[in-house]
Write a structure and sequence with these properties.
Helix content: 25-40%
Oligomer: single chain
Number of helices: 9
Order of helices and strands: EEEEEHHHHHHEHEHHEEEE
Number of strands: 11
Shape: globular
């Protein structure tokens, strides 16, 4: 079963979307300035290529494909989306829960962990300490706030069969109960990719890691391993780590024990969505590899065993 089988209303006309993805080959120096990713105030980073390339400006952004349409998020939003979906997988929740969680966070905070809001509202889900969601410090911890959201959602009887906006509103009790619906299609696209139901559907266009910012291989591996544990509840395989390499090997099977391929794709696309933070430059799963330089999935030279994922970070030599 995949999220793509769900029936939903058409997307609102103002949402920025592209019918096709185009791999971006990066060259020479980049000038980074702040820009806009889409018409819903998604913040991205505009990267202008050196004039010698003859190329126009591009946007540093991530996209999840749904039925041929790309739904964009900034790298920061994609990182938070990966955590929202990752925790749903770690909790063994259905993909529908990730869709609801993502739609809710998009409406409440634009998928940014903000430290302000209406009255005492805070964080990804704009939870309020005065409404017994936790202390301000707890709510500003995205792992805590996401789990708090799911703790309430799973107590909603029949939430899997509810409209996304109804399920979200049952948890949030917002003054704008219908607002979550406008984020449904984007949420489905990202949830389907991040839960492994849509292999090869998620990619990011990112600038190269800045020279001098590459960590030592062991530090690079520790960053990825730490995020794997926090976001997905997975542990890197200590027997598969080369001390001289910046590649982390992990088994994604625990995310979908009955479908190792789906677990691997969930892990791999999580790795792409978080690549801006981890400085990942290559993600290998099954017979496909995502390359930061290409911003696309391409055929790999080797086929990995079911469930296995290899994440390579740009590290100092």
């Amino acid at each position: 079963m995949t999220l793509l089988a769900e029936v939903g209303s058409p997307p609102p006309p103002y949402v920025n979307r592209s019918r096709r993805r185009h791999p971006v080959r990066r060259a020479l120096k980049y000038l980074v300035v702040i820009g806009s990713v889409c018409a819903v105030a998604t913040v991205g980073i505009v990267v202008a290529l050196n004039s010698l390339t003859g190329a126009g400006p591009i946007v540093e952004r991530c996209a999840a494909d749904l039925d041929g349409t790309d739904w964009y998020l900034s790298p920061q939003q994609a990182d938070n989306a990966a955590l929202v979906a990752g925790i749903s997988l770690a909790r063994d929740l259905p993909a529908r829960a990730a869709t609801i969680g993502l739609a809710t966070a998009q409406q409440e905070s634009d998928l940014i962990n903000i430290d302000y809001g209406d009255r005492d509202s805070l964080g990804l889900f704009q939870q309020r300490p005065s409404q017994s969601w936790g202390t301000a410090e707890q709510i500003m911890d995205p792992v805590y706030s996401i789990n708090a959201f799911y703790d309430v959602l799973v107590e909603v009887e029949g939430y899997e069969d509810m409209a996304v906006t109804v399920a979200a509103q049952t948890v949030q009790r917002s003054a704008f109960p219908d607002a979550y619906a406008q984020h449904e299609m984007r949420s489905r696209a990202w949830a389907s990719a991040l839960t492994g139901n849509s292999p090869g559907a998620l990619t990011c266009e990112l600038a190269p890691v800045a020279e001098g910012n590459q960590p030592a291989p062991d530090v690079a591996r520790d960053v990825v391993a730490g995020r794997l544990g926090r976001d997905l509840g997975l542990a890197a395989d200590p027997n598969r780590q080369d001390p001289a390499s910046s590649t982390v090997t992990v088994d994604g099977t625990p995310l979908a024990p009955d479908d190792p391929a789906r677990g691997a794709w969930a892990t791999a696309q999580w790795a792409v969505a978080t690549a801006h933070a981890t400085q990942a430059v290559e993600v290998h799963v099954a017979g496909q590899v995502w390359l930061r330089e290409e911003a696309a999935w391409t055929p790999a030279e080797t086929q990995l065993p079911p469930g296995e994922v290899r994440i390579t970070v740009d590290a100092a030599e």
